[in-house]
UniProtKB/TrEMBL annotation:
Pfam families membership: FGase (PF05013)
Gene3D superfamilies (UniProt xref): Zn-dependent exopeptidases (3.40.630.40)
InterPro entries, per the entry: N-FG_amidohydro, UCP029730
UniProt name for this protein: N-formylglutamate amidohydrolase
Length: 263
C-alpha cells in the first residue's frame, strides 16, 4: 500500500514516541519538544545543525528527564520527535508562531512563503498524530473512571539571544486557570533548600495561543502541572537523572496533598 503522506517519507521517523505503561499510575507525561528531527524533504529547514540543536529546535535534556521520571512513576509517556521549528505542537493553528519565521533571532528559511497546503501537511502529519495519541490515552482513562494528573515536561534556555537576561530559576511551573495540582507541587518544591522556583516563569500558559495544557488539561477539566527545567541543569545524563529523581519524589508527595485537599 502506498504511503498517503506527502511530507514524511519512509526514511523519516514517526512523529510520536509512546511508552504505554497502562493505567496504574495517576500520572500521564507528555513532552511537546522532545526531539529535533526534520523531514528529509525540508532539507534541515535551511539551517545549520547547530541551530536545530539549540533551544529553538529542541527542549534540551527534557526527553531524558521525562523517560527516567515516567519509569520511576510507572507512568505512560507521549512525546514528539520533530523539531518545534518544523511545526510547533504546543500552539493552536491560529497562532502566528505555529510555524515560526524567526525564532530567537534565527530566520528559518524553509518556513517562509508556505502555501496553505504545505502548512496543512506539517499539521496533519506531525501535530495531529501527536495530540491524537494523547487523546487516546486520556480517553481510555476517562472511560475507565481512572483519576489522571497530566504532567507536561519542558526545558528553557538560561538566556535568550534576542533578549539577553540571565534567568535565575532552576525550575518553573506554568499554569492557567486551574491550579489544583500546581499548588501542591509548589508546596513540595518549597521544602527544598536553595531551589529557585518560578511561578509562571519563564513562561505562563497562554490559554488562547497554547495547545497542550489548554486543550488536554483545562478544557478536559484535568488537574495538571507543567514543568520548565533550565537546560544547563539537564544537558547531561547526570543532571537528567538528578531532576528525574527530584520530581519522582515531589509528584507522589504532591498527589497525596492533592487527594487530601480534594477529598
Amino acid at each position: 500500500m502506498s504511503d498517503p503522506r506527502g511530507l514524511l517519507g519512509p526514511g523519516d521517523p514517526e512523529p510520536v514516541g509512546f511508552v504505554d505503561r497502562g493505567d496504574t499510575s495517576p500520572f500521564v507525561l507528555i513532552c511537546d519538544h522532545a526531539g529535533n528531527a526534520v523531514p528529509k524533504a525540508l532539507d534541515g529547514l535551511g539551517l545549520e545543525q547547530a541551530e536545530l540543536d539549540r533551544h529553538i529546535g529542541i527542549d534540551i535534556g527534557i526527553l531524558g528527564v521525562s523517560e527516567d521520571l515516567a519509569e520511576k512513576l510507572g507512568a505512560s509517556l507521549v512525546y514528539q520527535r520533530y523539531s518545534r521549528l518544523v511545526v510547533e505542537c504546543n500552539r493552536r493553528v491560529t497562532s502566528p508562531d505555529s510555524i515560526a519565521l524567526v525564532s530567537d533571532g534565527t530566520i528559518v528559511p524553509a518556513n517562509a512563503d508556505l502555501s496553505p497546503a504545505k502548512r496543512t501537511e506539517r499539521l496533519d502529519e506531525i501535530v495531529v498524530p501527536y495530540h491524537r495519541q494523547i487523546e487516546v490515552i486520556l480517553d481510555r482513562r476517562a472511560s475507565a473512571g481512572i483519576p489522571t494528573i497530566l504532567v507536561s515536561m519542558h526545558s528553557f534556555t538560561p538566556s535568550l539571544r534576542a533578549k539577553p537576561f540571565q534567568r535565575p530559576w532552576q525550575i518553573g511551573l506554568c499554569y492557567g486557570a486551574d491550579t489544583r495540582f500546581t499548588m501542591p507541587v509548589l508546596d513540595e518544591l518549597a521544602l527544598e533548600a536553595n531551589l529557585i522556583v518560578g511561578k509562571n516563569e519563564p513562561y505562563g500558559v497562554d490559554l488562547a495561543k497554547d495547545y497542550s495544557i489548554p486543550v488536554h488539561g483545562e478544557e478536559r477539566g484535568l488537574p495538571y502541572v507543567e514543568f520548565e527545567i533550565r537546560q544547563d541543569l539537564i544537558g547531561e545524563a547526570a543532571g537528567q537523572s538528578e531532576w528525574a529523581a527530584r520530581l519522582g519524589a515531589v509528584l507522589p508527595a504532591a498527589y497525596r496533598r492533592f487527594q487530601v485537599a480534594t477529598a
